């Protein structure tokens, strides 16, 4: 089945369409309407007036056309039919429109009719000049997602032209369509572009119409096929056999001051089994805040080093990378492991020294930020790549690190996330990954009580901080911005720091934010860890990785401005010791509906998976996927909350089509992927 050929419109139109991702005829045909307008009937002006407040379409002859300058420049056009007259008011207009709507011209206008000071009027209606008796459309008029310089008329024409050129063959076999009760591809697409006047408009708008169902299924099937193919392709690549769980792994476990939880032990075994295989592991390690992912990743690194290979750990921020470095180096270096440190802020000489250790193979383990993926960094024998907070890296960044293997072998990849992925999302976007879950917190962790407090009660919160300090406890105070923003009027870190230092003269108040030099930041963090700083005012740089067991109070300023996963991450900085911990969410009234839902969720549960599930309901999948798909993998038509049942079916059909590698099935898979992804499969493969 041939892939759709590329259109050849004029260059300017081609570039405008390309900006919307519309590069081929099939792209245009699958650019479906976001809503519809009913231009299939005309009502009299009198009837439209009686239905005031509704959108109506009327037709009449221009009886008056004038430009008024009171209270501002505007074009006033009066049209009339046999039942009455109506004013069309245009605040913004061109000279050509004044001529176009000259007296005596017949106008068809569509808009919301309101009763103004001078009678019935439509403000900025859609209109066209027509001849008497001009036919009405027989189907609803589609309104498409558009871009700058692309009118609906131009888009409609481009789509109609593309529909004449494409191959309409159905890429889902007839047997599967019949079994699933799916309508055929061609009538489904044509109905969505040109719905008949008697169509169920509610089902169309809600995307529950059988035509929409077919589009959603096809989209999900393409995604599942692509991910499963990527998984198979990965299994055909060679990776180092990291079979040894030797002296280092044993000494590491013996040296830990705590025992692994049952969940950690289970996950370690899953990872060990993967690392022994000769194809690249691609495993996502999920665990709630404080569940002990770092120890598990260090044990995976120990297995790589025991097997004679290097391991690399990449974190999204310097403060998080440094937390990992300090913790893992303290475990590993006494056992004779050389741990190298590499970030963008190192001086040239320090970078060169680290690069030398990495290239010579003297560094067994390398920890750092994006600096690890620079061309100047060459590994001697990279066997394992660990990516922390993987959703904060783009596809290209993770791919670059994976390509630093040697001898034509692809390193194993372990991705960690403290943002639990809801099941439907994992099935849809992470179908090419194995997923391990640490679903148990280490013993001795204290429960965290969460309260939402109006910021008018700030003084009470400051007293609470003082009381905690008198009991020998420490507190975090998190602010969303560093500098004053007139637009948002937020309490800033600097301002809060000054207020707290003034209100609590007996306490030591410290501050960290993203614009400080790494050495300055680390100095404050070290003082906080040592207990010399009682209150740490911070921006979200402390969101992940910071571990101070004595800190038992977390205050989050303007909590209504944060996303659920961020609030959950921040709250996870406390409750790491045995003392009862409290998280106070300071908010500014009045709260919007979404903010209310978020704060209520935080008060009701500390379970990261439940929070993730609710976050998916509130925000959709973007929060979890981050830069993973470079913006292209977000589903256009299917909704994961409403269409979860279709995900299951698409996954089963994908499995059936890929089983057995039969030529007729391969042809179906190729045709379906060409239609829906058009060569854009690469983004799903990392």
Automatic annotation (TrEMBL):
It is an enzyme of class 5 (isomerase). GO terms for molecular function: 3'-5' DNA helicase activity; ATP binding; ATP hydrolysis activity; DNA binding. Pfam families: DEAD, Helicase_C, RecG_dom3_C, RecG_wedge. It catalyses: Couples ATP hydrolysis with the unwinding of duplex DNA by translocating in the 3'-5' direction; ATP + H2O = ADP + phosphate + H(+). Residues 471-617 form the Helicase C-terminal domain. Residues 274-438 form the Helicase ATP-binding domain. Keywords: ATP-binding, DNA damage, DNA recombination, DNA repair, DNA-binding, Helicase, Hydrolase, Isomerase, Nucleotide-binding. Its EC number is 5.6.2.4. SUPFAM superfamilies: Nucleic acid-binding proteins, P-loop containing nucleoside triphosphate hydrolases. GO terms for biological process: DNA recombination; DNA repair. Plays a critical role in recombination and DNA repair. Helps process Holliday junction intermediates to mature products by catalyzing branch migration. Has replication fork regression activity, unwinds stalled or blocked replication forks to make a HJ that can be resolved. Has a DNA unwinding activity characteristic of a DNA helicase with 3'-5' polarity. Belongs to the helicase family. RecG subfamily. This is ATP-dependent DNA helicase RecG. It comes from Massilia arenae. The lineage of its organism: Bacteria, Pseudomonadati, Pseudomonadota, Betaproteobacteria, Burkholderiales.
């Amino acid at each position: 089945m041939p892939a759709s050929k590329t259109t050849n419109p004029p260059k300017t139109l081609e570039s405008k369409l390309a900006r919307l991702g519309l590069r081929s005829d099939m792209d245009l045909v699958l650019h479906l309407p976001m809503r519809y307008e009913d231009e299939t009937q005309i009502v009299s002006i009198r009837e439209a007036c009686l239905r005031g407040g509704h959108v109506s379409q009327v037709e009449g002859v221009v009886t008056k056309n004038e430009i008024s300058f009171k209270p501002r420049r505007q074009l006033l056009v009066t049209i009339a039919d046999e039942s009455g007259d109506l004013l069309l008011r245009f605040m913004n207009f061109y000279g050509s429109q004044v001529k176009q709507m000259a007296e005596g011209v017949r106008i068809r206008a569509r808009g919301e009719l309101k009763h103004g000071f001078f009678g019935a009027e439509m403000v900025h209606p859609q209109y066209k000049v027509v001849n008497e008796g001009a036919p009405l459309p027989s189907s609803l008029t589609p309104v498409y997602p558009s871009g700058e310089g692309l009118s609906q008329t131009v888009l409609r024409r481009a789509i109609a032209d593309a529909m004449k050129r494409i191959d309409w063959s159905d890429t889902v076999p007839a047997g599967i369509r019949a079994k699933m009760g799916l309508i055929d591809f061609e009538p489904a697409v044509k109905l969505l572009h040109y719905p008949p006047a008697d169509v169920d408009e509610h089902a169309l708008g809600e995307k529950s119409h059988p035509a929409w169902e077919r589009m959603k299924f096809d989209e999900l099937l393409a995604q599942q096929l692509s991910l499963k193919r990527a998984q198979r392709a990965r299994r055909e690549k060679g990776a180092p056999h990291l079979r040894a769980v030797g002296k280092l792994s044993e000494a590491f476990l013996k040296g830990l001051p705590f025992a692994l939880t049952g969940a950690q032990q289970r996950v370690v075994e899953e990872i060990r089994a993967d690392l022994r295989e000769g194809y690249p592991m691609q495993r996502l390690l999920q665990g709630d805040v404080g569940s002990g992912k770092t120890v598990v990743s260090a044990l995976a690194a120990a297995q790589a080093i025991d097997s004679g290979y290097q391991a690399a750990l990449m974190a999204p921020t310097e403060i998080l990378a440094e937390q990992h470095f300090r913790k893992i180096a303290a475990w590993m270096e006494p056992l004779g492991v050389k741990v190298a440190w590499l970030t963008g802020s190192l001086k040239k000489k320090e970078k060169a020294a680290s690069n030398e250790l990495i290239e010579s193979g003297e560094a067994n383990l390398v920890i750092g930020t994006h600096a690890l993926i620079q061309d100047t960094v060459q590994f001697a024998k990279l066997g394992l790549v660990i990516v922390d907070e993987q959703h904060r890296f783009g596809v290209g960044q993770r791919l670059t690190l994976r390509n630093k293997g040697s001898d034509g072998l692809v390193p194993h990849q372990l991705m960690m996330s403290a943002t639990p992925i809801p099941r439907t999302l994992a099935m849809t976007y992470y179908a090419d990954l194995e997923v391990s879950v640490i679903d148990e917190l280490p013993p001795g962790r204290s429960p965290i009580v969460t309260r939402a407090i109006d910021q008018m009660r700030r003084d009470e919160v400051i007293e609470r901080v003082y009381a905690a300090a008198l009991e020998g406890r420490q507190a975090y105070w998190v602010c969303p911005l560093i500098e004053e923003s007139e637009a948002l009027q937020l309490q800033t870190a600097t301002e809060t720091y000054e207020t707290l230092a003034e209100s609590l003269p007996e306490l030591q108040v410290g501050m960290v934010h993203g614009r400080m030099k790494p050495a300055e930041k680390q100095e404050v963090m070290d003082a906080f860890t040592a207990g010399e700083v009682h209150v740490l005012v911070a921006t979200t740089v402390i969101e992940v990785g910071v571990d101070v067991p004595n800190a038992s109070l977390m205050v989050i300023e303007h909590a209504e401005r944060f996303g659920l996963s961020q609030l959950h991450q921040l709250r996870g900085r406390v409750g790491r010791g045995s003392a009862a911990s409290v998280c106070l969410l300071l908010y500014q009234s009045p709260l919007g509906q979404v903010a209310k839902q978020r704060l209520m969720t935080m008060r009701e549960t500390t379970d990261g998976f439940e929070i993730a599930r609710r976050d998916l309901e509130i925000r959709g999948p973007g929060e979890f996927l981050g830069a993973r798909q470079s913006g292209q993998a977000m589903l256009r038509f299917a909704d994961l909350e409403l269409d979860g049942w279709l995900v299951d079916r698409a996954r089963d059909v994908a499995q059936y089509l890929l089983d057995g590698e039969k030529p007729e099935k391969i042809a179906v898979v190729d045709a379906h992927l060409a239609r829906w992804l058009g060569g854009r499969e690469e983004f799903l493969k990392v």
